Amino acid sequence: MLTEALVLSAILFVIGTFGVLVRRNAIIVFLCIELQVNAVNVSFVALSRYLGIDGQLFVFFVMTVAAAENAVGLAIIISIFRHYQTVDVDNFNLLKW
Amino acid sequence: MTLQLASSANLALVLLPEIVLSVAAMVVLLASVRIQKAEADATDRARSLGGLALAGLLAAAVANGWLHWVSPEGEPGMITLDAFGLFANWVFLLGAALTILVSFPYVARQGLQPGEFYALILLATVGMMIMAGTTNLILLFLALETMSIAAYVLTAFHRGERKSAEAGIKYFILGAFSSAFLLYGIALVWGGAGTVDLREIAATVEAGAGFNGLVLAGMGLLGVGFAFKVGAAPFHMWTPDVYEGAPSPSTAFMAAAVKAASFAAFLRVFTEAFSSLYESWYPVVWWMAALTMVVANLIALTQSNVKRMLAYSSLAHGGYLLVGVASANEIATASILFYLLVYTIMTLGAFGVLMIVSEHGESRFQVEDYAGFGASQPLLGVLFTIFLLSLAGFPGTGGFMGKIFLLQGAAESHLWTLAVILALTTVVSYYYYLRVAWYVWMRPAPAGALAAWAPVSVTAVLMGCAGVLIFLGIFPSGLLNGALTAAHGLWLRGLDAGLSGLVR
């Protein structure tokens, strides 16, 4: 069971990584980062079956941090939308990417 | 004074600097509401709130100084009280205080909300202090995010400025991306070693218990996460853009304190938990150090924008520090701490002058804008030259001594090639630092140029910074001894993994 869960988590993480690297819409990129973080949560929960309840506690910490990060991230996306009227990262070229 | 760590009241005392600073941040936020109404003038607002933030930093510094006299007894929890953490705290507190001191006119002139700005700096500093003091990977993640989230906001703080928003989103996306790697690393290390405590991980790894494959994979991912945070090549692409776009005080703070905190955590994790896996991680760090030094210094040569040049210079200094990480011995660790302190002072000094030349705004960053600066402002010109020389590593300045100690650490571990690269890239870096100095002194000001202005307080702070740099260049031994004590504690713990004795 553990191996399957860890493999699933790895696959989700890779999908998230891939999404961050390929997608150009800031919101989608942001969602892909969430996918990565939640893939890690799957690992934590799966491992906690063998290593004790700690892992499930870590998940709560991670969720809290992710929520705080989301609040700031969305605010930044809104702020950049006000300047550019788009959230496509290819258009943000004032600074050489 | 001994402190029984068994009682939770005493644990709170161990966290005193962090607690004081968190309270100060909230006081600053609350006070900003009142002051917003009471004071009409933006400069007065920035001054009074900045003064409050500085008072908080001073109180935290007093608490941090007091902790030097305390010897803890008993099983430490997730936070340890050791000389390494305390030394790192000095760097962060100094970085935050200097950022606030040199940015008064900027904050007022640009109409930034001073309350939020200073409170975020203080909260980021709290995150850094916990990062340097924790021995628990989950707490490390929380502290790192406390720091990073505050830094994202500081980057995007200038809402009216396009560049600031753009830098903010780039920093946010890549920062969150790298945090995800770090977190995955933590999960895998936990899965492999069955614990998130650094010393217990070291003990498990040394005993050969646990799943080594998972620990190795986790260590690799942690390394990627840290490489992003410290801006090591090839994970450095975000740094120049973010540093150029962010408001100058935020850039100074990120280049100095945020980088220092990432290095402190990097060092602690890799020496305390993974020192027995040195053979597997040192080649990677070796290549990252070499690549960072070469790439950053070569690109910096081509920059005509001084702010962007300083961003590449900050990357290059990260490369020098990575040499210390790769050397992984007591002298190298001490030299990293020494270098971080010197680097914080000289970077903030340079950014302080940059803010003056750019008229406390986001303009006049080109190297041509520095023409005639020395003639119109001789004192500031001299100070700027001292900062540039120290950044370049000229003999007689703190930056030179820092590099000498890093070279010593590398020699101790027989990393001759890295030492040679460090020396050669330093010589290359003279060109782009001295080019700015050349413009300052040798080029006449263009007709009709406005003279830059600086308040007396900022000039006094910059003079203090330059004085300290020269003092450390001539008498480095006092600070170095402090750094050696700090490094000694960390290494002893890394070696005696499994023993819970706190060595100070």
Describe the overall structure:
The complex is a heterodimer of chains A (97) and B (504). Chain A contains three helices and no strands. Chain A has 97 residues and is an all-alpha fold. Chain A has one domain: Helix Hairpins, CATH 1.10.287.3510. In chain A, helix 1 packs antiparallel against helix 2 and helix 2 packs antiparallel against helix 3. Chain A is elongated. The N and C termini of chain A lie far apart (43 Å). Chain B is mainly alpha-helical. Chain B has one domain. Chain B has 21 helices and two strands. In chain B, strands 1-2 form a two-stranded parallel ribbon. In chain B, helix 3 packs parallel to helix 6, helix 12 crosses helix 21 and helix 17 runs antiparallel to helix 19. The two termini of chain B are 13 Å apart. The C terminus of chain B is likely disordered. Classes of the chains: A mainly alpha (97), B mainly alpha (504). At the A-B interface, helix 1, helix 2 and helix 3 of A face helix 7, helix 8 and helix 11 of B.
Quick rundown:
The complex is a heterodimer of chains A (97) and B (504). With 97 residues, chain A is mainly α. Chain A is built from three helices and no strands.
Number of helices, where a helix is a run of at least 4 consecutive DSSP H or I residues of chain B: 21
**Multimeric state:** heterodimer
- The residue-averaged pLDDT of chain B reads 90
Largest sheet of chain B, order of strands side by side? 1-2
The top-level CATH class of chain A is Mainly Alpha
**What is the H/E string of chain B?**
EHHHEHHHHHHHHHHHHHHHHHH
Roughly how many Å is the radius of gyration of chain A?
16 Å
Attribute tags:
heterodimer, A: 97 residues, mainly alpha, Helix Hairpins, 3 helices, 80% helix, 0% strand, B: 504 residues, two-stranded parallel sheet, 21 helices, 2 strands, globular, disordered C terminus
